[in-house]
Structures are given as C-alpha cells and as structure tokens.
Automatic annotation (TrEMBL):
<keyword id="KW-0479">Metal-binding</keyword>
<keyword id="KW-0560">Oxidoreductase</keyword>
<feature type="binding site">
    <location>
        <position position="91"/>
    </location>
    <ligand>
        <name>Ni(2+)</name>
    </ligand>
</feature>
<dbReference type="GO" id="GO:0019509">
    <property type="term" value="P:L-methionine salvage from methylthioadenosine"/>
</dbReference>
<feature type="binding site">
    <location>
        <position position="134"/>
    </location>
    <ligand>
        <name>Fe(2+)</name>
    </ligand>
</feature>
<dbReference type="GO" id="GO:0016151">
    <property type="term" value="F:nickel cation binding"/>
</dbReference>
<feature type="binding site">
    <location>
        <position position="89"/>
    </location>
    <ligand>
        <name>Fe(2+)</name>
    </ligand>
</feature>
<feature type="binding site">
    <location>
        <position position="91"/>
    </location>
    <ligand>
        <name>Fe(2+)</name>
    </ligand>
</feature>
<keyword id="KW-0533">Nickel</keyword>
<dbReference type="InterPro" id="IPR014710">
    <property type="entry name" value="RmlC-like_jellyroll"/>
</dbReference>
<dbReference type="InterPro" id="IPR027496">
    <property type="entry name" value="ARD_euk"/>
</dbReference>
<dbReference type="GO" id="GO:0010309">
    <property type="term" value="F:acireductone dioxygenase [iron(II)-requiring] activity"/>
</dbReference>
<keyword id="KW-0408">Iron</keyword>
<keyword id="KW-0486">Methionine biosynthesis</keyword>
<dbReference type="Pfam" id="PF03079">
    <property type="entry name" value="ARD"/>
</dbReference>
<dbReference type="InterPro" id="IPR011051">
    <property type="entry name" value="RmlC_Cupin_sf"/>
</dbReference>
<comment type="function">
    <text>Catalyzes 2 different reactions between oxygen and the acireductone 1,2-dihydroxy-3-keto-5-methylthiopentene (DHK-MTPene) depending upon the metal bound in the active site. Fe-containing acireductone dioxygenase (Fe-ARD) produces formate and 2-keto-4-methylthiobutyrate (KMTB), the alpha-ketoacid precursor of methionine in the methionine recycle pathway. Ni-containing acireductone dioxygenase (Ni-ARD) produces methylthiopropionate, carbon monoxide and formate, and does not lie on the methionine recycle pathway.</text>
</comment>
Amino acid sequence: MAIEAWYMDESDEDPRLPHHRHPKEFVSSDHLAGLGVLYWHLNPKDYENDEELQKIRQARGYNYMDLLDLCPEKVQNYEEKLKNFYTEHIHADEEIRYCLEGSGYFDVRDKDDDWIRIWVKAGDLIILPAGIYHRFTLDTNNYTKLMRLFVGEPVWTAYNRPQEDHPARKDYTKSLTEKVGVALEAH
C-alpha cells in the first residue's frame, strides 16, 4: 500500500478538507523521499509485536515512544491545539509519527515552497526530516491515534516560520541543494 499525497490548492476553506488542485496533482513516494520524507506501511493492529517497527526503531535510534489520541473528546483545548499544529513550523529533530487509528494530514513544503498534502491513515509511519516546513491537521473524521517516536527524551519544540537562519533549516536546505547537484552531475 502506498501513501497518498498531492499538491494542495490555495483555498482558505476548512483545513480538514482534502484541498486537491484542479486537476488533481498526485505526488509519488519517490518525490517525497527526494524531500527527505520517509514512509513505511506497517500493521497497526499488532504494533507492540511488530518486528519491522522494532527494526526501524533500532536502526534509527528511536528509544522513546508515547501515544496520542487526538479528538475533541480526549484533548483539552482541542481547537487551540489543532490550530497550533496547523501553524507552519520546523523542528530541530525529525518528526516521527505512526498512525495506529483514524487519519489526518501532514502538509510539507516542496523545493518551490508549494504545499504537498500527505494523508496518513492507520498503518502509515512517516518521518519528516529536521528543518522541513510542515503542519498537521485532522481530516473530517476528527480522530487519529498516533504513536510518537523520538531519539532520547521527547522534544516538541516548534519553530514557527520564518526560520531560515535556524541550523536545522540550513542543514535541510543544504541537503536539498546537494541532492540536486548530485543528480545534475550524473547527466
């Protein structure tokens, strides 16, 4: 099963709607990987015993994990929290989320500063690289249960845009330039 992702329209309508461009412009997992976004599809019903999840955690050093039920009934100040998640920001570290139930959208900026919407559903594990501009919102189902993974102690510090001088943003931007340079040299 592949992740679903597409370029977003510029509408100010409810962010929980899909926001497809017309005509629709889907984005491949290879395109996302070129931006540093990694993806796996795992078995969310057996995450406690999933050997593939354990291999990913071990290989990438994710030694801390917690679970987050995100819905109006379970989160204090739900609307405020959702608004904060939807504010464009970066992190100094990777953002790793594994959707165990429900669904939601991670939006990431591409190299041209356009929004790509990534629809995560049960079984989708996504890793956003440090320094990528992104945001999150639920879809119209208004529910998701996410596993959050971290290297070491959890850090949830978001740095709202603009952050062009932040070390993580500089490293991220440099990594994109180097990838482009390598591809050009191969021709």
